[in-house]
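F.,

This is the one I mentioned.
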C-alpha cells in the first residue's frame, strides 16, 4: 500500500513540474568603468551567456523577472551632477563614427560638447537618433564612497538600497524597466549606457538578472515545490513504518 502511495506522489510531482516556473540567476561584473568622465559617454556590452559569473548559457526564451545594478564605492565631487543609466540597442551602439571599442566590451563615445544632459538622448548617430531607453538617474552623490543598489522587479515597485549618502535622489524614468531591457537585447547581447554630467568614480559595477522559464528543463525547480514534495514523502514513509509496527505487534 505504501509503495503505491509513493508511486502516486511521484507521478503527481512529475505532472506538476511540467507547468511550474523554473528560475535562474545570472551575475555580471566590470571594473572597466571605474572612471565615468564628463567628456565622454560609455556603454557596457554584456554577452549574457559568456560573461556571467555562473558560467552558464542564458536562455533567450526565458522571461526576465528582476534587474539589479550595484555601484560599489560610487562618489562624485560636485553637487547637482546627474548620472544617466540607459539600455541601448546593441547593434546601433556600435555604428557611431566616434566610438572606441575595447576588448572588455566597453564602448567609449568621445562626445565633446555634451558635458550635461543625457548623451544617448541628445546625440545623433550616423544613421539617425540613438535607439534605447533611459532607465533611471542618480543625482548628488557625495564625495565619500557609497554602495548603491537599484533593483527592479517585473510589475512591482523598485527597491533602492544606499549605504552611505542616503539623501541622493534616484529617479526611475522608464515606465517599464524590465520590458525595455527585454526589448533591446539583440543576439544575446545586453548593452547598458552611462553618461554623467561630471566625473563619477566607483570601484566596480555589478549587474544581476533573475529569469523564469515555465516548463524549462535545464533549470532547478522552485525550493518551495521541492520542500512540499519532500514533506509528503516523509509523511508517507512515517505512515508506512507505523502500519508495519502495528502489523508486527498483532502478529
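My design for it:
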Amino acid at each position: 500500500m505504501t509503495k503505491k502511495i509513493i508511486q502516486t506522489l511521484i507521478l503527481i510531482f512529475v505532472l506538476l513540474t511540467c507547468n511550474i516556473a523554473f528560475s535562474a540567476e545570472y551575475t555580471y561584473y566590470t571594473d572597466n568603468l571605474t572612471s565615468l568622465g564628463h567628456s565622454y559617454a560609455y556603454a557596457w556590452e554584456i554577452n549574457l551567456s559568456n560573461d556571467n559569473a555562473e558560467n552558464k548559457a542564458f536562455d533567450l526564451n526565458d522571461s526576465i523577472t528582476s534587474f539589479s545594478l550595484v555601484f560599489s564605492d560610487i562618489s562624485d565631487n560636485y553637487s547637482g551632477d546627474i548620472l544617466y543609466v540607459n539600455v541601448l540597442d546593441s547593434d546601433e551602439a556600435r555604428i557611431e563614427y566616434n566610438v572606441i571599442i575595447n576588448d572588455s566590451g566597453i564602448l567609449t563615445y568621445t562626445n565633446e560638447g555634451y558635458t550635461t544632459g543625457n548623451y544617448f538622448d541628445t546625440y545623433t548617430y550616423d544613421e539617425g537618433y540613438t535607439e534605447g531607453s533611459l532607465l533611471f538617474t542618480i543625482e548628488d552623490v557625495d564625495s565619500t564612497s557609497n554602495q548603491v543598489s537599484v533593483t527592479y522587479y517585473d510589475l512591482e515597485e523598485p527597491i533602492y538600497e544606499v549605504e552611505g549618502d542616503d539623501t541622493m535622489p534616484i529617479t526611475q524614468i522608464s515606465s517599464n524597466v524590465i520590458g525595455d531591457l527585454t526589448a533591446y537585447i539583440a543576439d544575446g547581447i545586453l548593452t547598458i549606457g552611462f553618461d554623467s554630467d561630471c566625473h563619477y568614480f566607483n570601484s566596480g559595477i555589478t549587474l544581476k538578472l533573475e529569469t523564469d522559464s515555465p516548463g524549462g528543463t535545464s533549470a532547478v525547480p522552485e525550493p518551495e515545490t521541492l520542500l512540499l514534495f519532500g514533506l509528503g514523502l516523509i509523511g508517507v514513509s512515517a505512515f508506512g513504518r507505523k502500519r508495519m509496527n502495528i502489523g508486527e505487534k498483532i502478529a
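Residues 223-250 form the longest helix (28 residues).

Talk soon.
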